[in-house]
Amino acid sequence: MKKVSTSKGSYYLALRHITKVANSSLGLRKTFNSIAKSTAKAVRANGCCIFLLDSKKEYLITVGACGLSDIYLRKGPLDAHKSLPEILDGQVAFVPDAGKDERIQHPQIAEEQRVHSILGVPIFDNGETIGEIRVYTREPRQFSEADKNFLSSIADVSAVLMERAELHQLLTRRYKASEKKAKSAQAPQAPTTSLRPVEFAHPSEEEFAKLLDFYCIEWLYEPRSFPLRWKDNAIVEMFTPDFYLPGLNLYVELTTLKQNLITEKNRKLRQLKELYPEVNIKLLAKNDFAKLLAKYGYGPQGKAKVEGVKRILYTHSQIQRRVRTLARRISHDYAGQRLVLVGILKGVVCFMTDLMQHLSLPVIIDFMAISYYSGDDDQVVKITKDLDSSITEQHVLMVEDIIDTGMTLNYVLAHLSAQKPASLRVCTLLDKRVRRLADISLDYIGFEIPDEFVVGYGLDYKGEYRNLPFIGILHPELVEESKAQ
Ligand code: IMP
Ligand code: MG
In the structure, which protein residues have their CB atom closer than 6 angstroms to any atom of ligand 1? Predict the structure, then answer.
């Protein structure tokens, strides 16, 4: 194994450069890329990567890198507990041969991409690991104490930068909040995900990240590239989905392209599914995404003027029949037990009142209310009204009006199961399954509906239409406009 001598002079020059960059007005991503480059050069390594830990301290997010191939950088979500886990505990990690090391998550890719030796150090903030710096060499290599010390100094500079960036974000947030004279006295708990120095390729990606942040859904931006085609052992085609949502084990690709280009993307997606059948991926096309935002009265379609109901999807008597059938099944399944029905205000009011009247069980009802996404980046979903009584050791049935992406339910179910109910099931009147992102198992479903915005029987658009006795499809102007595009 090679011992490479690095001179104090090269450390000094690198430090001078790094501190200068750290104090410049460059964006965070560029700053960290530049630090990675100087660091690799100073320790005579071939590559360097600077990582930040996600808010749950599970995944490593690349914030700066140099000298590493795209394939290596996007080899998949990097689990901080599996990849050199000792760094999480505050130790320095040395890997003599990455292709043969258990602490390496993707040894084969390391070997193929000619990553041989690795040195990694933690980035500390108040004694806690918040990130890592790693350097990589193509040849077998040993690192000196001086190399380790140098890397730790760079980690300290990085910690200051991360801290400062956060401070900056918090300050802007507070400024915005005070401008709005925030209604609630309690400051919203900001998801740390929004503090990441990610450079999004498209504004819709940032919008999507904000929506995920709101629902506290962890995300990683472009963590993995999937090779799709090879020629003479070299990769000639790859596909890099925009997001990975570790909690849902789901890749999401947003596309704002024209229909003909989507066809090409669909082809790649089909190929990806064939080659990697274990991978769960969803394509969210421009219109789907606009619809998703429109639900919150936001985005291009959200500004549409609403003309009224296009057509009736379910009449009052169809709904009543279905509700009675659901109630019979629920009464049968819970026979001899007491049931707590939990609804989320306000959409569920009609369904809840009809359903409970047909249950032949002792029943308690309770309601929750949660805040709604408004597109502000200083927000995170909040329970604005919690349950009145404890559900611990009770049989709980969540009653929902409609499940769309499933993000609301995903959040609420996590909240409810933390209270350890005896059982927890879900009953929804409407299931817009085609749009599901969070795959939640539903126990009772009234109707599976197509991807249309529906109103009536409790469901609203911007607060209106709840009082209609039937369920109808809304007729927003922009649906027509987007078809004409
Ligand atoms: P999710 O979090 O995307 O599953 O959204 C669920 C919530 O969005 C529902 O409880 C409704 O409040 C609202 N929602 C979703 N789709 C519709 C719709 O078509 N009409 C009215 N409200 C909807
Ligand atoms: Mg609802």
Answer: 295, 347, 401-409, 432, 453-455, 459
Q: How far apart are CA 78 and CA 57, in angstroms?
A: 11
Residue 178 lies in a domain: no
Q: Whose CA is nearest to atom 11 of ligand 1?
A: 402
Ligand 2 centre to CA of 193 (Å) is 25
Whole-model pTM: value is 0.71
Could you give the CA distance from residue 414 to residue 247 in angstroms, rounded to a whole number? Answer: 12
Distance 401 CA to ligand 2 centre (A): 6
Say yes or no: 330 and 472 in one domain: yes
Q: Does the active-site annotation cover 89?
A: no
Q: How many structural domains compose the chain?
A: 3
User: What are 234-290's pLDDT values in tens digits?
Assistant: 888 999 999 998 888 899 998 876 777 778 888 999 999 999 999 999 888 877 777
**144 and 219 within one domain:** no
